[in-house]
Protein 1
Amino acid sequence: MAQVLPDERELRRVIGDGDTVADGEIEGLGEQELVDLYRSMVVLRTYDERSVIYHRQGRIGTYAIFWNHEAMQAGSVYALERDDWVFPSYRESAIGLLRGMPVETVLSWWRGHPSGWWNPLDYNVASICVPIGTHVPHAVGLAWGKKLRGERTVAVAYFGDGATSEGAFHEGANFAGVMKAPAILFCNNNQWAISTPISAQTAAETLADKAVGYGMPGVRVDGGDVLAVYEATREAVERARAGDGPTFIEALSYRAAPHATADDPSAYIDMERVEEERQNECLGRYARYLRRIGVLTDELEERIRGEALQAMKDGIAAAEAEPPADPELVFRHAYVNPPPSLSEDLAELKRVLGNE
Amino acid sequence: MSEKTLVEAINECFHVELARDDSVMVMGEDVGRAGGVFRATAGLRDRFGPDRCVDTPLAEAGILGSAIGLCMAGWRPVCEMQYDAFSYPCLDQLITHVGRYHWRTGGAMEFPLTIRMPYGGGVRAPELHDDSPETYYVHTPGVKVAIPSTPADAKGLLAAAIREPDPVVILEPKLHYRTMRGEVPDGEHVTPLGEARVAREGSDVTLVAYGSMVPLSEQAADELAGEASIEVLDLRSLKPLDEDALLASAAKTGRVVIVQEAPRVAGFGAEIAAILAEKAILDLRGPVLRVTGYDVPYPYWQIEDAYMPSVERVTDAVRKLLAF
């Protein structure tokens, strides 16, 4: 029987505060790996901050901000192997960058251009899931299906605190438990679902408690501590590969930015609290840790940030250089074998547009 | 060829298709140990093992949602929804993902899953065991829909669905699972999607039907023998739709009555009527009429016969049209 809560209610932490809380030990990560992890976070942070600017400039559409979520995304992906699958929600829209996806692909997605379509098989990153929590069963099904085929693939579904109220989350979690799927249900609990606080989302003491009902372990980790996230995910991956089934990870964080570019949180959130969280945001915490252990220098930081910024500038230029999408794409790929009526519609549209 | 009931033909299809392609798997509530509440999947668990005939938790969205992931892992899942109206929780996954995922990947990934369910009334069952939900499915882009009316087509259309690279929903007329017998080709048998069948040739009026309304329409045609020559067109596949067969029959008879068990408003019959208005107006000698279920919840079974299209209602519509 799976081990269950409440023995994991305490938040796991590795990174200290440089003052009264000492740094913990992290196994298996050398200096190079620690820098790689830092680079991953900088790539994500730069993507996010530039995207907000691009939105303000009218260069991308509405954008879901993930500022202060980088530790959860980078730490967990770093614990995976390349063959493992990632199922992002829109909050993890740029997570494919950690798998070699071009910046312009993600930007094109937010620009509503068909070049933002990607082939999930190229990166083992599923398409961005917009309806909340509905991709949890997809990740579970993939993990289960790979297990049936004798492969050792693990799948991770990312979702927020609000998703734990959705039926699809519960059905997916239940399937994962019953099928002993090698899946990780990764909940980034940033404590807000647009304007709905976690207290209005659940009466459970912690979200990780929900794992009990599905016969899987639930662990809680400080979502602002990239090393703790990495370690918790690595353990979950090991369990999954050992055939011990799924794990629910609740990474606790705080949404220190608007839900999306169209949102004004000052109407519902205590902005002083937000400011506090911003002072303790995850990238800064990790950078200070790396400086304490002598891994990060000004020069290295500047170089990594410079490279990430350049990649964004190149990416937006490439996205904007995409030719306008052909209206014919409206019809393409709706079906593998389209019904005949679609070709009639296309011919009619072309005639009306004068492109016959 | 051998004579089989409709549900036996479905069961045989599964045995053939699972043996033919080891990526085909069946999943659903009670499909394994019990062999399905109608025994459509009988013997599969014993023959192909519990990994290819999977008893799932009672969660229709979970079944269909995990089937999407199974497709991504290289499987061709066939999901059973135990009854028509029990399929509604799966609509979330169907609409938001099943019909879109191939498109969302720019055509890179295929989702060759099949959803099948017993549908329709007339079986004296409790509430929500009687619905005709085809409109919800056929209205969903990216999803195909077929409805057999004979044992041979029940086998052939299911085989076509399983082999199809697009997601397909098959609705099976449960009223005729065991009451209808017919000759069914042995071994592999595929009825291509998008090909209607002229169930009966005639020259005065076309009855357009699918599923359990086909045998009803044939009874009505019998009733009208000596009065009018009735053609019965069995659509078999709602999407893709065999428009050529529809228009050819309309051109031949000039009179069309659509018989549909589902409620009337925005039902599939409305689509047929619209196509005829757009493409066959000059062939028609009278209005396109519909005989359908009513826009009410499917009634308690003691009065369900008053809801169902009947031979009397169909013949009445035909006579009205002939007198137009």
Protein 2
Amino acid sequence: MNRLLRAKADIQAKRVDAGPGTRWMTPIWRRLESVGGFIVVIAVWQLAQQASGLPSTLFPSSLDALHALVDLYQVGILYEYTLLSLSHYLLGLGLGAGIGLALGLLISSNRRVSDILMPLVNFTYAIVEVAWIPLLILWWGYSPATIVVAVAYVVASPLVHNIVTGVRSIPPVYIRAVRALGGDRRVVLTEVILPAIVPSLFNGLRVGAGFGFRALIFSEMISQSEGIGYLIFTSAASQQTARTVAGMIVMGALWLFLDRMYLRPLERMSTYRWGLSSEAEK
Amino acid sequence: MSMLLRSRLLWINFAIAAIMLGNPVLRHVQARDKLQSAGLAGATTRVDVAVDLNASPEQFHMNRLQTWGTMVGAQGRRVQLRGVTPDNLQHIARQSWVQGIRRMQP
Amino acid sequence: MTSRFERAVYPVLLGAIPFGVIVVFWWLAPRMFEYPAYMLPTTAEVLKRLGELIQSGELLGSVLSSLGRLLGAFVIGNLIAIPLGILLAMNARVSRVVMPVAIFLQAVAGIAWAPLAVVWFGIGNVAVTFLVVNSVFFSSLYNTISGVQSIPLVLWRAMRSMGATQPTLIRELIIPGAMVQLLLGLRTSMALGWRSLVAAELIIGTNGIGFLMMDATKWYGTDTVICGIIIIGILWLAFDRFAFEPIERLTVRRWGLLSNH
């Protein structure tokens, strides 16, 4: 009873948003709402499969997928493949972030240099990341190395782009001011450039991580190296479609976990600290 | 607000780290039990073993078992391997999907 | 001091320098490093291959089929997603229930559906188009719901208290209010759709640019692959310049909803 009263007080004090067209709601209902959608989807999905009469290999139901998930766990595939995918991803992420940062700062270190290289950066950024995969296959073959390189490139690309455009949009006045006050290059870097580009840096990292995750799954499918993408691909090929769907669920859950747990707070922290707002809040 | 964020993040990371570190330890202990019950704990030479899985062997299992010994047969959930070194014996026993290992009857 | 001619030509020349440097490196590379011929063909070889592809009509054919699929899928996907999203988001409770699911589906959308698409439609155009529609649909749905959700509560209440009906709400509140996000969402869904298109053509396509490139890897045709990469870059730049920027300029910037960036 107390909880309900407190909830109502919260809403009236605008600590919790009640949403349009509602009376008042308890935070308990809130929790249920977040999960409710999934329950509805699972139920409707199951009924749809049963109503359609299609075989499970063509149209796996939600329960089929959950069975497959449990099965994959027991057989040991789930844990190992998730580990493999994650290790490739993190390796590529680290590599891409490092190279992207270094390259981005290098290119934008000198105004002349960045002016000259800008068209190249723009053109490379316009090339969809997946387009490089055939080239990577020609160079590294069907192996985990292709995966790591692909992810690294996909992560580095928006990072470099964001850094270069970010640095270019700093009003030169600031740099001149710091220089006039006697700051050397290092000071300019730490006091002007880095604070200015931090939001777009973290945003670029998050965008790159997102595309990188998709690139991970995709390159696993192509290079036939073990991992979640490989699981999705081969299960469909061997008519174990329930496993394919289970793999897709794992992929979604994995990404959401990584994004909500690490990437979003990171991006929020970067904008919060410098009191700037970034439009890509999602 | 950031304190709240930090604590939940911290706890979940803690849990993940615990799982990731605890899992290999758990499996190591279980491996020791498996090998001891089969009398293979102190193996120093190559042995021929029959491995019991907890499900019908799939490509996933075969790929791995083949790197640890020469496969000579499989019936139901049992796979026979020849020439398994003590190191590889450890690897096999550590897998969560291996229920037991037995010396193979010649 | 600088004439108008110089001011016009100078940036173009400056912009061409990096490409020039690349071409020089490209030309020098085989003389400096040892690698098998198929790894990096010379500029001449690539240009020759480009000419061949243009002449045989292969390039045009591939580009047209790819773009046709993309545009068709883009239209279909958005046509379904945007009205559906608006409908779902109009009721606060429904939108709160649907949102987590939309986020999850957005995370899985696209290429992860490829094997499923093959199970259902086999390899070929239908599967590829399905994949692109899938990407466009889920990303648009999420963006639309998110956009409608971001309309300030005050405005809802104001309009409702003045007795607005559903159609009025849609016309006067939702569409203008979510317009920025909708347009950004269109751009995002196009970008995602484009990526999914190329990716799908790479693994389950039977024609199009992606297929052209993947097919070439089978016989080590690196020159074709590089041609494909360049074409893809040009296509997206053209898209941006001739499609999105004008639209953005005419609508969102003109209405002062987006600052000049």
